[in-house]
Design brief:
four-stranded antiparallel beta sheet, five-stranded parallel beta sheet, about 230 residues, about 20% strand, Arc Repressor Mutant, subunit A, Rossmann fold
Length: about 230
């Protein structure tokens, strides 16, 4: 079924085979690509509902592919990396990935994240569109058009950045733990990697804060989590 289609972009055929086998067992339709150019073509032809994307690819890097895909689709993207350096993970999220996993990873955890992301995406599509504008200082959050203005400037937010900002703005003044945000924004009902939240908060601050190093809107509450002020 198209609504359950997944694209795997990975040049390690053994990993592709394992992922394909386990995802098909879960009932998903699976397509794979071995390099960035083939992946871009298949993503445009088949419009998958979720993409599992390796960073290191022939012909076009996973990061560059992610930048292109994020402009063309709101499908969740999980990036895979064999590197342990934090910078790879941060850059992966900067270009629009929704989450990342470091190899080697638990297949059980990957499947749980896939289920959660697809469930969350389907819930978002099913929610009736309502005209709702949230103003916080010079920020205007237009939920029906899924866009954010800062003054007269239209901000370029990834889907997860928008959902995170919208959730916190809806609940301005309330403090939420990283685990709570993972549940509400990513759909994880398990202890996922909370650094995903931290990185998305960091990049959101670069876009909505007058001084990202001294945030006045997205506030860190030490030992508790994050809240929206303003």
């Amino acid at each position: 079924m198209a609504e359950h289609s997944i694209l795997i972009v990975e040049d390690d055929q053994n990993l592709v085979d394992v992922l394909t086998y386990n995802l098909k067992k879960e009932g998903y339709t699976v397509t794979s690509a071995r390099d960035g150019e083939e992946a871009l073509l298949k993503a445009r032809q088949r419009t998958p509902r979720l993409i599992i994307l390796d960073i290191m690819l022939p012909k076009m890097s996973g990061l560059e592919l992610c930048r292109i895909l994020r402009k063309e689709t709101t499908a969740p993207i999980i990036m895979l990396t064999a590197k342990s350096e934090e910078i790879d993970k941060i850059v992966g999220l900067e270009v629009g990935a929704d989450d990342y996993m470091t190899k080697p990873f638990s297949m059980r955890e990957l499947l749980a994240r896939v289920r959660a992301m697809l469930r969350r995406a389907e819930m978002s599509r099913a929610e009736p569109e309502k005209e709702k504008i949230i103003n916080i200082g010079d920020l205007l959050i237009d939920t029906s058009r899924r866009r954010v203005m800062r003054g007269n400037a239209l901000l370029s937010l990834t889907p997860k950045e928008f959902e995170l900002l919208f959730f916190l703005a809806q609940n301005k003044g309330h403090v939420f733990s990283r685990e709570h945000l993972l549940n509400k924004v990513w759909g994880y009902d398990f202890a996922g990697d909370s650094r995903t939240v931290d990185v998305h908060i960091r990049w959101l601050r670069t876009k909505i804060e007058p001084d990202p190093d001294r945030p006045t809107r997205l506030i860190t509450v030490r030992g508790a989590g994050y809240k929206m002020e303003g």
